[in-house]
Amino acid sequence: MKWSELSIHTTNEAIESISNILHEAGASGVVIEDSEDLLKEREDEFGEIWSLSPNDFPKDGVILKAYLPVNSFLGETVEAVKLAVNNLVEFGIDIGSNIVTISEVDEEEWATAWKKYYHPVKISQRFTIVPTWETYNPVSSDELIIELDPGMAFGTGTHPTTVMSLQALEKNVIEGQRIIDIGTGSGVLAIGSALLGAKEVHALDLDDIAVKAARMNVELNKVQDTVTVVGGNLVDSIDEPGDVVVANILAEIIISFTDDAFSVVKPGGIYITSGIIAAKKNDVRHALEESGFVIEEVMMMEDWVTIISKKPE
Q1: What is the DSSP letter of 153?
Q2: By C-alpha distance, which of 191, 206, 75, 177 is closest to 128?
């Protein structure tokens, strides 16, 4: 099968928003090539090994590559993506040069080549994310292994927003609790919650592809008796509040439903919000406080923010 590679040269600030647009357009995969990755000094407290080639990155900005099937609707889809990206300016998001290019690739060539860049990564004191095709032996008795197959539509679980979310869950999840994962994506946060001892995890996502991928990863990690993955619109599918609620989504969406989120967190419970660019930190913090949450901790990694807040008892 032939696929069209849609390449958008943009900014780090626009990564999450454009990735969401590409998902909604039916993209079967998103690759992020960020020029800043070559310049960043990386902590290695967990023994990470980094090996990056300049040939794999743009000279400046960020290139997002998405994959769309070559069909009679391709032209219309591409134009719709361009329009949606241009409209991000209305939300104060810098889209940079916004140069769009298109090329064709073979499915077999693309679907396997990216795997050589994805290896086991220890992202916290206890969590290690391991791709399904890699062999990995735990280095400590309390290490928690999340096996992940991102397939052709999801990230590898090592983006700063995901890493901080897992670290926040590690700090706050207590054995026997009920956890809610809003916008579960690949299911990595739901799986992590189950491995930490949650009694019940309710994971939801608007995207049918995400629901399917999350269910597959849940079964792969053998936590299907704990984790339920459903298709749902934000908090609409939640009929019982959670001890810990986590939402790793766009800052704009987090801001839009802080009141609803407050209603699905138990009194004394924790609300973890991530996917927040640094420029939106204060906006999200203000919205959380306006809805009644008390800010417990603000985590930062690179240009990303995760906020841990608490609902008063």
Answers
A1: T
A2: 191
Q: How far apart are CA 62 and CA 272, in angstroms?
A: 27
pTM: 0.67
Cα 35 from Cα 61, distance rounded (Å): 6
Helices (H), 173-280: 188-195, 208-220, 251-256, 258-263
Long-range contacts of 51-58 (CB under 8 A, 24+ apart): 56/117, 57/33, 58/9, 58/33
Q: Are 155 and 66 contained in the same domain?
A: no
Q: CA-CA distance, 262 to 288, in Å (whole number)?
A: 9
d(CA 232, CA 38): 38
pLDDT tier at 272, thresholds 50, 70, 90: very high
* Alpha carbon distances (Å) from 87 to 25, 83, 92: 15, 6, 10
Q: Measured between alpha carbons, how far is 279 from 34 in angstroms, rounded to an integer?
A: 18
Same domain, 155 and 99: no
How many CA atoms does the CB half-sphere of 140 hold within 13 Å? Answer: 11
Phi, psi of 25 (to 5 degrees): -80, -5
**Residue 246's domain is classified under what CATH number?**
3.40.50.150
Same domain, 190 and 82: no
Do 96 and 199 fall within a single domain?
A: no
- Cβ contact 163:124 at 8 Å: yes
Domain boundary pick from 93, 116, 139? 116
Q: Tens digit of pLDDT for each residue in 131-152? A: 888 888 888 889 999 998 765 4
Of residues 23 and 245, the one with the higher pLDDT is 245
Categorize the per-residue pLDDT at 45 as very low, low, confident or very high, splitting at 50, 70 and 90.
very low
Listed in sequence order, the residues at least 6 apart from 253 whose beta carbon sits closer than 8 Å to its beta carbon are 183, 234
